């Protein structure tokens, strides 16, 4: 294997040695299979290709200073995948089978887990698709669960630094009672035009308001939003927001730090009152927000006055990363150590 420049990894795909697969046929999940093939053999009439029966997850494995490999909150990813399966009528993979697949693929590709001091990690991508051939619009009766891994660097090139965001009203990521709470590919396809526009305007990402009234903060690109003010961690509550495992973890850590936590509708004008704010998710952990521009209304909500991450965002970021890498005590039992 050619030498990997661990410190300069992008957030992209790199071929690794193995992936793992489990097929659902005749009403039951089969045995786990190991493959070194990067391609899937799919029928052209598979439901994932025509009717969007496709779900995925994202989680990471980290190599600690002690040499141990830790996977962060994999049971939460299993539960969220099960929720998505319920939402789009797919066969649910039990938590134990999910865990079996994740641990197996990480062990098989251990040489691709970046060293501790690089700040990089092993990204784990579980994928579940409907594979049976049919033309009528109804759930598949066969499914394939696949997990591949790839070493990644920071999601944003600048790492933990503030970024500018822009509110875009002309596109919605998802409807209030649609698939926004599920991790399905269609939600991401629906965000591509808005994301392209945001980048063309010079912003790191787009900001969505609620699709129904265009009054409340919804999601921040493909991440959850949170704001800090008056010693309170505030994050939007909505029926179209994906429940972020990172956000859930940050809420707990904020409580541990003595902050109040509020999950409620956040009107756009409240952005002017936040002392700090961030976008959070598996890829970046926290991307601190410098400002949020509302170009249509000629407003700019400047959150970071000095252009630097705020003290609470920094403390939360360091605490969460510390748990992931084994530098901080895992008091909540979030980490699974790969034996």
From TrEMBL:
- Single GO MF descriptor: branched-chain-amino-acid transaminase activity
User: Quick one: which pathway?
Assistant: Amino-acid biosynthesis; L-leucine biosynthesis; L-leucine from 3-methyl-2-oxobutanoate: step 4/4; Amino-acid biosynthesis; L-isoleucine biosynthesis; L-isoleucine from 2-oxobutanoate: step 4/4; Amino-acid biosynthesis; L-valine biosynthesis; L-valine from pyruvate: step 4/4
Say if the entry is tagged with keyword Nucleotide-binding: no
Please state the Enzyme Commission number of this protein: 2.6.1.42
Q: Which Pfam families match?
A: Aminotran_4
Annotated InterPro entries: Aminotrans_IV (IPR001544), Aminotransferase-like (IPR036038), B_amino_transII (IPR005786), BCAT-like_C (IPR043132), BCAT-like_N (IPR043131), BCAT_family (IPR033939)
Top-level taxon in the UniProt lineage:
Bacteria
Q: Which reaction does it catalyse?
A: L-leucine + 2-oxoglutarate = 4-methyl-2-oxopentanoate + L-glutamate; L-valine + 2-oxoglutarate = 3-methyl-2-oxobutanoate + L-glutamate; L-isoleucine + 2-oxoglutarate = (S)-3-methyl-2-oxopentanoate + L-glutamate
Modification sites for N6-(pyridoxal phosphate)lysine = 183
Requisite cofactors: pyridoxal 5'-phosphate
Q: Could you tell me the keywords of this UniProt record?
A: Amino-acid biosynthesis, Aminotransferase, Branched-chain amino acid biosynthesis, Pyridoxal phosphate, Transferase
- SUPFAM superfamilies in UniProt: D-aminoacid aminotransferase-like PLP-dependent enzymes
Q: Which GO terms describe its biological process?
A: isoleucine biosynthetic process; L-leucine biosynthetic process; L-valine biosynthetic process
Tell me, in a sentence or two, what this protein's role is.
Acts on leucine, isoleucine and valine.
Q: Which PANTHER family match?
A: AMINO ACID AMINOTRANSFERASE, BRANCHED-CHAIN-AMINO-ACID AMINOTRANSFERASE 3, CHLOROPLASTIC-RELATED
**Hey, which family's this protein in?**
Belongs to the class-IV pyridoxal-phosphate-dependent aminotransferase family.
- What NCBIfam families does the record point to? ilvE_II (TIGR01123), PRK13357.1 (NF009897)
| Protein name listed in UniProt | Branched-chain-amino-acid aminotransferase
